[in-house]
């Protein structure tokens, strides 16, 4: 007798299907009420992307009156702007193939090179960041079209992802058709201007929140993205400054080029110059080969300098020269190299105060501070906590392949009154722990700092550095004083051990403050 699937395998398959159904229900629940392109963009960027893991998503709709297809949506607004007026008339093969196939079709980079009439926006994706493209039909009573999902190298979709895309395609088609109908598009043409380009938006996952403060951040991102101006992002640790930098890059004309990130506080001062500008072979002990610095790597793209306030004074001079002259010089070289690199810097320090103290060059400060964006602390936008909580919980469910959970109103109210000294990063960690510890489908409790640490109305408000010190001490005690390693405080705080040690020194945190028995 031939052996069939055993009991455990059958149970595993059932659980897999239940999980897929749970994810699908959650995705459809998020898409169903959407009526505008802006809302559609938010759901795609913040919910669908975190579940499916694509690097590119676009929709083409048939233009019946012109006998072709037009790009109606792209997850990168700059790409939409670039291709939105193109009528794709020689790409029928790829569109008809998707429309006539009952299953999503996967097109590898090698196959794409041989495919006739590949649309220009897909060529751009495959040349820049996508290793494969998945196409799936979007059919409805009023229009027909195709959705494309791009996946980066190493993130190619598996069988489960393809099945989820297939199941989701029906809701995607319904939702997008409703948007087109509500925009009163002309029958047969359907080319309404996308609301996400008329209204300030941020295309990056994680720019979440409906508060006035976050709407202002989005407005500033939109204003500065199309230019090449330098940007200085200000805000406390954990507020999401890196996400703002990524949103600026993703919405800029440089979005198809690289975004290179450098944490100035995480690299020892004697190595930071080489990291930024590169070095020639033999220029110093250990320089066994020529190395391109981050400026060269980010040529034509964007260089994000995080923790710029920690940069040593002697290196600030060289950075200023690079910004002024638009050229750099590798260590050990007499020649200069021209670079076309946009600079976005970020800091949690008051740079004006650092200039007064002599810790930061005034000329570099004014060069960097062409356009400033201040990211608000979470305690200043508590109305965004429900949206953030929903996003994080959804992401944990997808990442850990667990059924989706909801959060009880009481637990949510607790989150709203806590001051969050660690900002969104602290909220994320608290919710992840609560998600993993919750025994059923409802998160009833989120473990955070005791209520006695929360300033009651009428009590004096603590300065930020006291909250930061208390938070770091709490994490150090939780990690039994361990700083480095996978179970160390630096890992939990998502910062290099060198950065954590620097903060501890600045805040006066000694070992006796967090050692056992304290």
Task: Summarize, please.
With 518 residues, this protein is of the alpha/beta class. The chain has 22 helices and 17 strands.
Q: Would you give the CATH topology of the largest domain?
A: Beta-Lactamase
Mean pLDDT: 82
Q: What is the name of the CATH architecture of the largest domain?
A: 2-Layer Sandwich
**What percentage of the residues does DSSP assign to strands (E)?**
5-15%
Low-confidence stretches: 185-206, 450-461
| Helix share, percent | 40-55%
Specify the biggest β-sheet. 6 strands, antiparallel
Q: Shape from CA axes? A: globular
Name of the CATH homologous superfamily of the largest domain: Transcription factor LuxR-like, autoinducer-binding domain
How are the strands of the largest sheet arranged?
3-2-1-6-5-4
What is the name of the CATH class of the largest domain? Alpha Beta
- The counted number of beta strands is 17
GO molecular function, one term: DNA binding
Protein name: Fis family transcriptional regulator
Pfam family, one: AAA_lid_14
Domain Sigma-54 factor interaction: 207-436
